[in-house]
Amino acid sequence: MRGFEVVDQIKAEVDKACGRPVVSCADILAVAARDSVVALGGPTWKVRLGRRDSTTARRTLADSVIPSASSDLPALINNFKNQGLNKRDLVALSGDNTIRLSQCAIFRNRIYNATNIDPAFAKERRLTCPRIGGNINLAPFDPMPGRFDTAYFKNLVKKRGLLTSDQALFNGGSTDKIVKSYSLNPEAFWDDFAKSMIKMGNIKPLTGKKGQIRVDCRKAN
User: Fold this and answer.
1) Is the distance from CB of 145 to CB of 101 less than 8 angstroms?
2) Helices in the chain by DSSP H: which ranges?
3) How far is CA 62 from the centre of its chain?
4) Phi, psi at residue 175, to the nearest 5°?
5) Can you tell me the distance from the alpha carbon of 213 to that of 217, in angstroms, rounded to the nearest whole number?
6) How far apart are CA 11 and CA 53, in angstroms?
7) Phi/psi of residue 138, nearest 5 degrees
8) How far apart (Å, rounded) are the C-alpha atoms in residues 11 and 25?
């Protein structure tokens, strides 16, 4: 995960202020996610605290439940349904790609082989993502990655989704209307995004005596 050193810094300051590790890395990440969105012009929401950290968390396990960049709409809907989230949650939470970047290796196939893509957009992305090499070259999901806005959804309407899983949200399927409404109404997106973040934050949290408070967020104690 790029930028995790920021979490390390936050953890160090929180532990220093508290005198010992009493705030979990899970809570720190949840608050940092909220505050990052706010700092970039997005909505705020109330973060429920009291989570504890897992003793068994593994990257392979996380990767197994995170949708693939090549997922189609049915796969995306099913993936979110398995976590207790619906289609509106899927579209709203995908909107956080507006402040993200992706590596060339992940979107290469789409910009060279997809048919549901704006030709001018594909040509632009190919400038920094050749057929061979440049795997870690980065590209934004929308023209203004430093701002939490609705440009991501406007891009989807124009067939400028960077990943296959992005454009799947607006490709003649059941989520088209939600994408269109968000592209036209920032307030609706912000309201739903905040609600969906709260729902996602409440997915099987460890509380009470379960789990642990990690000393180092990068590994179990």
Assistant:
1) yes
2) 4-18, 25-39, 59-65, 73-81, 87-94, 104-113, 119-126, 151-157, 164-167, 176-184, 186-201
3) 13
4) -100, 0
5) 9
6) 13
7) -100, 150
8) 7
For the chain, 221 residues long, the average pLDDT of each consecutive 10-residue run is 80 93 94 95 94 84 82 96 96 96 97 98 97 97 93 98 98 98 98 97 90 91 88
C-beta of residue 96 within 8 angstroms of C-beta of residue 193: yes
pLDDT value, residue 58: 72
Give dist(CA 48, CA 15) in Å, integer: 19
Tokens coding 69: 């960049």
Tokens 């579209």 identify what position? 91
Q: Which of 137, 179, 172 is nearest to 156 (CA)?
A: 179
* Dist CA 131 CA 107 (whole Å): 11
Say which residue the tokens 């990943």 belong to. 163
CB atoms near residue 48 (< 10 Å): 13
Q: Taking a C-beta distance cutoff of 8 angstroms, is the pair 139, 104 a contact?
A: yes
The pairing of strands 138-140 and 101-103 is antiparallel
Q: Give the H or E element holding residue 102.
A: strand 101-103
Give the pLDDT score at 65.
78
CA distance to 130, 184, 203, per residue, from 169 (Å): 26, 16, 23
> For residues 29 and 205, is the Cβ–Cβ distance under 8 A?
no
- Whose CA is closest to 77, among 163, 69, 200, 85? 85
